[in-house]
Write a structure and sequence with these properties.
By secondary structure, this protein is α/β, with parallel strands linked by helices. The protein has 15 helices and 9 strands.
Length: 353
């Protein structure tokens, strides 16, 4: 029998129910801006070792919840765990980020890919979910996540992060059928991976589509949104009742289509007013966002002014999860995060349903 969640603001907001104030958590909230994270990372010896050691992953997952009183914990992991489990050889280089030893540069490599079993090749992630869930003991919900098929495909084809995605986008134009086969494999892999996280105890699931904005509008709908819709449809059967957050960075022009995806909540970046986003998606889909992460480098009083502006833009209607418009940055001052949280916590109001 599962432990009841004591602070369920996030779950209620995702259902567009009334809450006393918007729940708050931050993308990448367990990260290098925290001194305690840096200490645990040093103890682990490497980023991958940190991700692959459930007890250490649990430790860093809980650090920001303990320090700031966030309304949710998000599992400490990486979106590239799935392609790593597919045999592409993930490694991290200081100052250069993630890279794969075996990028997908021909159709044969795409067709050789298999779908990893979440409880074997990715068992360390599931063990981390179970460890965090048990340690939280119902304090706040736990968010599990995965990268979107398109975003994972870009890394797998390019071999690393990219400014122009020329290999991935060239495949899209030259051999769209091969790209669709890759995306279909990733739909199966990510769908099973997220369902397994829910089975292990995750209360909310999130799809990070970091590079959907690199596509034109038709390409986004075909190669990014449709695969995510297929995953969401799978989760509706495999993990019924578990809310799903969809976040496509740089895709505010696609909000209406995203609202029809089946996702419980749509994350938005900082380049759109929440009032406009709410008008576009309607009253029955939650919104998450959307403070510019760089605003946290301003003076604390200015940070709080920006928080109030974001809250005012959404207004008193239900269904708002306060977050940044992308992940928190490495050198963010701790006092700014405290100021941000204080401003959201002081926004007590009777939010209408």
């Amino acid at each position: 029998m599962s432990t009841p969640i004591q602070n369920d603001r996030l779950l209620r907001a995702l259902r567009c129910e009334a809450v006393d104030r918007p729940p708050i958590w931050l993308m990448r909230q367990a990260g290098r801006y925290l001194p305690e994270y840096r200490a645990t990372r040093a103890k682990a010896g490497s980023f991958l070792k940190l991700c692959m050691t459930p007890e250490l992953a649990c430790e860093v997952t809980l650090q920001p919840v303990d320090r700031f009183g966030f309304d949710a914990a998000i599992l400490f992991s990486d979106i590239l765990t799935v392609p790593n489990a597919m045999g592409l050889g993930l490694h991290f280089t200081d100052g250069e980020g993630p890279a794969f030893e075996h990028p997908l540069r021909d159709v044969a490599a795409i067709d050789r890919l298999g779908v990893p079993d979440p409880e074997t090749e990715l068992r360390y992630v599931m063990d981390a979910v179970r460890t965090v869930k048990g340690t939280l003991a119902g304090r706040v919900p736990l968010i599990g996540f995965a990268g979107s098929p398109w975003t994972l495909a870009t890394y797998m084809i390019e071999g690393r992060g990219s400014r122009d995605f020329r290999y991935a986008k060239a495949l899209r134009f030259d051999d769209p059928a091969a790209l669709q086969r890759l995306l279909a494999t990733l739909v199966d892999a990510v769908g099973q991976y997220l369902a397994a996280q829910a089975a292990a105890g995750a209360d909310v699931l999130m799809l990070f589509d970091s590079w959907g904005g690199a596509l034109d509008a038709p390409g986004y709908r075909k190669f990014s949104l449709v695969p995510m819709q297929r995953i969401i449809a799978h989760l509706a059967k495999a993990a019924p009742g578990v809310p799903v957050i969809l976040f496509s960075k740089g895709c505010n022009g696609q909000l209406a289509a995203q609202a029809q995806s089946g996702a419980t909540c749509i994350g938005v970046d900082w380049t759109i007013e929440l009032a406009q986003a709410r008008q576009t998606v309607g009253p029955n889909v939650a919104l998450q966002g959307n403070l510019d992460p760089v605003a946290l480098f301003a003076r604390p009083e200015q940070v709080q002014a920006e928080v109030r502006r974001v809250l005012a833009s959404h207004g008193r209607s239900a269904g708002h999860v306060f977050n940044l418009g992308h992940g928190i940055l490495q050198h963010t001052p701790i006092e700014s995060v405290h100021a941000l949280v204080e401003a959201v916590h002081s926004a007590t109001q009777d939010v209408v349903g």
